[in-house]
């Protein structure tokens, strides 16, 4: 198969709005399948390509997200599966962090807990920012190429910013919230339930967004490396 034919396959897959990580994987399957059909059935490239497109028709059928953005059924299923995995991981991480706070609440006084918790929250929420700065080149590449979707995790870290904004807005009430959370964790459930629930939701949202960001960077580094050090052209 020559470069012109491979480019034809790639152009077709690009028209399906596939993220680049999946596009390169699907392209390999297309090329191998077309080559196999050309050899086994002794047919031309155009006929083999048309047959392979028919084989993938259901997977590459246009579908839509809840926000109206178009995608393919194949990408939608993979993204949903990956998001569900991250959702479970974020729930487990949130439960673990809440357990640590529970142990801390019983280990120190209300005053000490009130002083420590805001510091813990600030350090915790700075993780995504540090990760962003460390991997700034990846995010800059994504920003400089807005038409390129590197992987299914792209833009999945929006909840990090929402959690950060909520934390800034609540900044002046840290001490009062910390005291109520301590009361709730130590058994006074009627006092700090709403404050604890706010903390729980913030941690969960933040963990989900942060894990999406980590997955995005890990996958994007591989994709960008392939783009830069291979003959791929998009």
Automatic annotation (TrEMBL):
The chain crosses the membrane at residues 86-106, 112-134, 155-177, 189-212. Keywords: Membrane, Transmembrane, Transmembrane helix. This is DUF1700 domain-containing protein.
